Predict the structure.
Amino acid sequence: MRWTIDPGLCPKGTTSPPGDKSISHRALLLAALADGESRLANLPTGEDVAATASCLRQLGCDVDMAAGEVRVHGRGLRGLRVPAGVLDCGNSGTTMRLLAGILAGQPFSATLDGDESLRARPMERVAKPLRLMGAAIETTSGHAPISVQGGELRGLVYDTPVSSAQIKSCVLLAGLYAAGETTLREQRPSRDHTERLLRAMGAQLTGAAHRGGATLQPPERLEPLEGAVPGDISSATFWLVAAVLSPGSDVTLEHVGMNPGRAAVVDLLQSWGADIEVVHGPEWYGEPTAALRVRGTSEPLSGGAIRGDLTARLIDEIPALALLGAVTREGVEVHDGGELRVKESDRIASVAAALHALGGQVETAADGLTVAGGQQLGGGVIAAAGDHRIALAGAAVAVCARGTVHIDGAEAADISYPGFIQEFMTLGGAL
Ligand code: S3P
């Protein structure tokens, strides 16, 4: 599918980004292990979270999609059933890596597989700690398909060599089934949604992974969940970027998740000069929310450097921020982002290709990129590279291009944000 975005869009209005993808995967997985029924609203309708729901159904858990609400009939920690076939995780690394942790504790074996992009992503990073806990895991030369023969697990103290919420969550979810406590330590802070939900559901989890370790005592049971999952700050980012690039724009984003490990994009854009007003809302199981009002001015943002912990906290926002960098005053540098190479696409390469497609300049490195500021972007054809965040980031920066921007392979956006382009055109004044 090709999106075509003509110059001159200026978004105005109010919208709610889809429910947070990371939180929703975890809410579904943990609800399946809870005692009792969970009722979850605002789950995203994108393909990634649908993959998690469909794997859970194969594992014997009823996940009913009713109007505006998903009901998960929890099977308790030990109630999952042997799946009839391979568990298809689609494009979703979170589904595969987190489910691997849960499967490691089940008294049966199962195979996880995914699409071509997911099969290219590293899986030994989760297989290794699960083996140390006692599960038998086979990867296909380090990749999916992965077979997991679960069983009796022992607790573990694991220093993960890569700071990743998916590795951390995988180990903690396996820790639900371990004899004894499980501790996970990481060097840089990764998103902590699993920890917040586990605590909210009654598990005893102390400490923080990047501050000496997060330690889980295996619980007897987990309480069910209810209510509306906060909106996805990573999806909200496309609106923030489009609005700051359109003088006269005025967009309000409602019920957006503001977990401190995820919301760095708001502080960063504000520190670069963006006009973003934050009105705090209620928490959902320890997850803060806010309404964000963003207005565009004709003054370019300053831009700046993203490195260290900040890179880890902004990892999913970097495609949009790097593209935005071209039209800032000083440009945007990204360092310490080697993980960008192993996302849904090689995001250093696909961001560089997108900038080149619009006539921009960029220098790439093994773990980052440097985008000079003060550039003018023209029209062109951006290849989404099978990556939802490239399609969506390309559409967001198209508002400041001097010519028409086409996004090829735009169907990739359905992974996290179905319906984005229609809303973008409507609020942007094109429809
Ligand atoms: C995610 C964690 C991040 C992120 C991904 C979703 C999660 O990956 O990039 O989009 O839901 O746990 P890593 O944990 O590998 O950094």
User: Anything to note?
Assistant: The pocket of shikimate-3-phosphate is lined by residues 22, 94, 164-166, 169, 190-191, 315-316, 339 (CB under 6 Å). The chain has 14 helices and 25 strands. The domain at 21-227 is CATH 3.65.10.10 (UDP-n-acetylglucosamine1-carboxyvinyl-transferase; Chain).
